[in-house]
Amino acid sequence: MNTLPINRIINGECVSEMKKLPDSCVDLIIADPPYNLSKGSEWKWDNSVELQGMGGNWNKVMQVWDDFTFESYMTFTKAWLTEAKRILKPTGSMWIFGTYHNIGVINVICQMLGIEIINEVVWYKRNAFPNLAGRRLTASHETILWCNKGEKKREYFFDYEYSKSGDFSYDSLKTPGKQMRTVWDISNNKEKVELKYGKHPTQKPIRILKRMIKLASREGDIILAPFSGSGSECVAAKMTGRKYIGIELDNLYCEIAANRLAHVEANEDQLGQLSLSLFESEETK
Ligand SMILES: C[S@@+](CC[C@H](N)C(=O)[O-])C[C@H]1O[C@@H](n2cnc3c(N)ncnc32)[C@H](O)[C@@H]1O
To answer: What is the CATH number of the domain that holds 52?
Structure first.
């Protein structure tokens, strides 16, 4: 492929689609793969019973795309990580979401492929859903691996200044002006606009994606989301002035993502900051 499918969501299978891309062509990958937890019985919850601090309907993920045997999950993970490593620039890096169900497999396969894990981040969800059966602890975090290509010379981009001094006022664990740590306190609740246009059982909040993007890429960079679902990673890329390529198996989610993207202004993040600073300067006159 000579020209990259910039600012497009491709309806296809990510391993096959990544194979069409040239070596070292993307600056950042944000992968939210199947967690392989669509097993056992179905759990659902609706808003008819109110729980303090909990918003929105909830159901355990039960999707065909999320149900693998252990061996086939290993094979699939190796296949997509191999392609992800190949198309990542040496100056780039990759964020991978997971939970205890799958993150061990991903960690081991990264090591098998020589992909270097830079950090393991714990995404602490203070509004985690309670364990209804009362048979185990309330799962209240996800794990995120931040990785680079694993070449001898480390060239990956890291905005250290942003990590120390960005606005993380919503995060009770981040001290302004101090180094960012590997535990992030970010609510999984979505803003109204995210729920208006985005509809996916495992939709990620825009806030965490913007943080990942700003930590590890520059404006104008190309961000690949190989499991783009309802397009959250692409929306966050557009809002922060980056380019995106999304890949998604299910055409319905591609349509949802396209509609979502049509309702987002490019550089919305910066525009927000600009109007805020104008407002502040008016106030202080
Ligand atoms: C965990 S969800 C991602 C949700 C997304 N982060 C969002 O906020 O909407 C994983 C998505 O990957 C898609 N998928 C699963 N296997 C795939 C594959 N081999 N290639 C491309 N997409 C795949 C599923 O249809 C699903 O929408």
So the answer is: 3.40.50.150
